[in-house]
Design a protein that fits this description.
By secondary structure, the chain is an alpha+beta fold. The chain folds into 4 domains: 160 residues, Molybdenum Cofactor Biosythetic Enzyme, Chain A, CATH 3.40.980; 48 residues, Molybdopterin biosynthesis moea protein, domain 2 (Alpha-Beta Complex), CATH 3.90.105; 88 residues, Molybdopterin biosynthesis moeA protein, domain 3; 68 residues, Beta-clip. It has 6 helices and 27 strands. Strands 15-12-16-20-19-17 form a 6-stranded mixed beta sheet, with helices on both faces. α1 crosses α6 and α3 packs parallel to α6. The radius of gyration is 31 Å and the shape is elongated. The structure holds ligand LQZAQKY5 and molybdate ion (MOO). It catalyses: adenylyl-molybdopterin + molybdate = Mo-molybdopterin + AMP + H(+). Belongs to the MoeA family. One of its GO terms (molecular function) is metal ion binding. It comes from Knoellia aerolata DSM 18566. Its cofactor is Mg(2+).
Amino acid sequence: MRSVEEHRRTLLALVDELPPETVPIAGALGRVLAADVVAAVDLPGFDNSAMDGYAVRSADLDGAAPGAPVVLDVDGDIAAGDTTRHVLRPGTAMRIMTGAPLPEGADAVVPVELSDGGVDRVSLDLAAEPGRHLRRRGEDVRAGDVVLRGGVRVTPGRLALIAAANLAEVAVVRRPRVAVVSTGDELLPPGSSLAHGEIVDSNGPMLSALVRAAGVELVHSAHLRDDPEALGALLADVPGEPDLVLTTGGVSMGAYDTVKEVLSRDGRVDFVKVAMRPGMPQGSGVVGARRTPIITLPGNPVSSFVSFHVFVLPVLRALSGLDPEVPTTTATATRGWASVAGKVELTRVVLDAEGVRPSGGQGSHMLGALAEATHLAVVDAATSEIHPGDEVRLLPLVGQD
Ligand SMILES: Nc1nc2c(c(=O)[nH]1)N[C@H]1C(S)=C(S)[C@@H](COP(=O)(O)OP(=O)(O)OC[C@H]3O[C@@H](n4cnc5c(N)ncnc54)[C@H](O)[C@@H]3O)O[C@H]1N2
Ligand code: MOO
């Protein structure tokens, strides 16, 4: 049986980082930077005021104190956006607003609260040390600085930094394009009237949702019956030019395991057993003239869900230019549970303020426990029991809040 690590390596060998493209920054959220981002301007771009108040020469306020104010003439106003290069005459103050450029000669700002708020003359109650309430040009970022490294995802905060660095466009890795195909004669769309023996295709909607929640483009989704001809034709030329095809169902030992039957024929897809539970039967390889990478996931709904997190997500990350390793956390078990020895067990768990505990029934057909689950606990093959108080490694569920 293949180890989880070995199978993940096999899958990662099928893909490379996708090429870069330049997009307006409004479309960059969630994308991965294809190159370092270099600031086009200093931040702040000019010395400016951190407070609404009065720009002064600090020497003019020597000795000012509550009850012993210094009174200065006010030589005009400077608002944010004022592009005039003002000069502060010695012995005067200028009214200045937050973010407005500091006049030449000023070396401090006195907040309006420490004055009588005068417009022509102002009485200032406190001495100001040089540099007080100023924001200096370039103190945050210098033009030419690398502000973000390639390979990181654009978050709202990073997007703000790119915009402030005066860049209208940014180079990002092309978004992976994924097709999802569920297979099985027993499957009908949600809302159908179900005859005895028929069930709803939940893997199709689930995988499509996981793909989207992972920030990836879903270019095609379909359900096919267990018809080798139709499946063979679809997989020979999957619509939407995907970078990755996902199938579910038909990969184990059954008489109607069509995915395995069709894809075993030309030898470009391998079907293996991986030492994990759930998610043991797996397949991978390439299909069609474009040699599109394919991952064939098991049909049991939870097996498919878990396999997405353990195998598909690292591949999507690699295509997107991210480190394939999904960051994990740890937490303390508040309840114990049994785990199968010799296989990596992925238990659906709930993490809350107390710690981590299993979320409901763990059968690979049981979707009920997904209502509450926040993570998958990754229990290694050498461990057969988790005890209360044990540290457990946790893989976050895609799209979880
Ligand atoms: N004799 C053996 N039987 C099975 C083995 C084995 O090693 N020897 N492995 C078991 C394990 S583990 C798994 S996992 C499943 C994998 O089966 P398949 O990938 O071939 O999937 P199917 O047989 O098509 O379906 C399994 C199960 O899941 C339901 N299903 C399938 N597709 C969907 C869908 N889109 N939405 C919701 N539910 C779906 C299907 O009705 C079956 O109940 O094989 C075990 N058997
Ligand atoms: O390994 Mo199957 O994926 O347990 O149910």
